[in-house]
Design a protein that fits this description.
single chain; 154 residues; mainly beta; Immunoglobulin-like; four-stranded antiparallel sheet; four-stranded mixed sheet; 1 helix
């Protein structure tokens, strides 16, 4: 019996340890030695706590730290509520650029979305995450108790 309990405890420990998440990657990527390179000012855009219907526009700023023009091929939101607009002209070395991101602020609740950006730097997409919370401008009240089978009205 003691051996069975020890075995079960070991299985739980191994399961617990293997379920731990890896540490988040650094927000900065080392510059490549040649070609274009997109360097984000920030990879997370925090809307903070905003009211329903607030200004939906935020800007993701970046710099081409490479030696050749950077071309943004596409930018797409993780769902239809996140709409990015990106520069169509090449971003020359040393120049800054902006991707405008609009989120549907008519949706109440937490924001946790992303925008995937494809460039001529590599086949891998880079990602900008948007987060925050949209609160309703209406006060939430509990319904008046009408009573039930267990409690009388009043």
């Amino acid at each position: 019996m003691k051996n069975i309990l020890s075995l079960i405890a070991m299985v739980f420990c191994v399961g617990y340890l293997s379920a731990q998440t890896a540490a988040p990657a650094s927000n900065t990527t080392p510059a490549k030695t040649g070609g274009p390179h997109l360097q984000w000012e920030a990879t997370v855009i925090d809307y903070g706590e905003i009211k329903k219907g607030s200004d939906p526009l935020r800007k993701a700023l970046f710099t081409n730290t490479g030696t050749e023009p950077l071309i943004i091929k596409s930018a797409r939101g993780s769902c239809g509520c996140t709409v990015p607009t990106w520069p169509k002209d090449p971003i020359m070395p040393g120049e800054k650029g902006v991707i405008e991101i609009r989120y549907d602020t008519q949706r109440v609740g937490p924001i946790n979305k992303s925008v995937s950006v494809s460039t001529n730097e590599s086949d891998e997409e880079t990602r900008v995450t948007i987060k925050g919370n949209i609160s309703s401008d209406e006060e939430q009240t509990l319904p008046k108790s009408e009573g039930n089978v267990l409690t009388p009205k009043g």
